[in-house]
Amino acid sequence: MSQPGAAPSFEGSQPILRVSNLEASVRYYVDALGFKIDFHDSIASVSRGRCALFLVQGDQGNPGSWVWVGVNDVESVHAEYVRSGAKIRQPPTNFPWACEMQVEDLDGNVLRLGSESSPNRPFGPWRDMRGDLWKRQSDGTWLVTGQTVRDQTP
Length: 154
Prior knowledge:
Helix content is 14%, strand content 40%. It is mainly β. The protein has a single domain, classed as 2,3-Dihydroxybiphenyl 1,2-Dioxygenase, domain 1 (Roll). It has a four-stranded mixed beta sheet, with helices on one face. A four-stranded mixed beta sheet has the order 5-8-7-6, with helices on one face.
């Protein structure tokens, strides 16, 4: 408990992702995405570094949720995930806010993994929740290109 009059502090967050098959999802997060199991009971907690996620079968949350995860080197994570067979929605792409990639779990939940934006690399197209690509225009706005591609796994 905090001292009387002290401002409350936040300790971190652990998103809850709804999954359809807890066993299969835990295996995917461990085998394909490199997470470790913190606990596995009626729900599971998996983590990698300081990133932790709850996986809950058929409850708490909506399928197709998105989570941002900061990483120190998105290119290395991408290479690892290509080797492990992870479902990559979008390879590392440079944006004003980060160089990021998108990886999808078995239920369509998306992890946006990003590291620092690369100053010497052009900005690429953004893939939205429908799979549409958005291209940044010279005036800074974004325009959908109409190209819907769901799976970018090589």
